Amino acid sequence: MTYRAQPTLPYFPAVIKNIASPSLEVKKLVYIYLLHHAEQAPEEALLSINTIQKALSDQNPQVRALALRVMSGIRVPVIHQIVSIGIKRGCADMSPYVRKAAAFAIPKCYRLEPSTLPQLLEYLSKLLGDKQYYVAGAAVSAFLEVCPDRIDLIHPHYRSLIRKLVDMDEWGQLATL
What region holds the Clathrin/coatomer adaptor adaptin-like N-terminal domain (predicted)? Predict the structure, then answer.
């Protein structure tokens, strides 16, 4: 990544220091920067994982969802177990916004490490039965990416998904149909 024809990777340590900033806007910018440079500087990216994990316990559901989204977006195979634990916490979160982020994190974790499939199927099954239509729509999308042949996961939630179909966004509707 470059800015005005100058590489931005040399600024990685200075930018990552701001990951613990209380400002949501600064956090978002640091997370975007981290996602762009994590593959080129995996050791430095791993140093930020602890701070991102702490953000999973933040009071603000937006911060929790953002942290889960960023953690699952870092494509460093070493962290697959941490991402899986984050998804588990996200599935049990009180906020539907965080549960939706957990659903979208499932395919990313699967791509990172396919051996986590049994755990991910358990989380996915729980999210498919979620009462919120936008969480269920995200879960169906994740289902289609991870295990589209496992109809047994859809079966217990089929009628509920059909009732929620009207309220889902267009992507959730397409995936469900």
Answer: 11-174
Is the CB of residue 123 less than 8 Å from the CB of residue 102? yes
Q: Are 141 and 105 in contact (CB under 8 A)?
A: no
> What pTM was estimated for this model as a whole?
0.88
Confidence class of residue 151 from pLDDT cuts 50, 70 and 90?
A: very high
Phi, psi (degrees; rounded to nearest 5) at 171: -70, -40
For residue 122 the two structure tokens come to: 């358990």
Pair of tokens at residue 43: 């050791």
Separation CA 168–CA 86 (nearest Å) = 25
DSSP letter for 7, please.
Answer: E
Contact 69, 61 (CB under 8 A): no
Which helix (H) or strand (E) is 3 found in, with range?
Answer: strand 2-3
Q: Which residues pair with 3 in a beta bridge?
A: 6
Gap between the Cα atoms of 99 and 104, Å rounded = 9
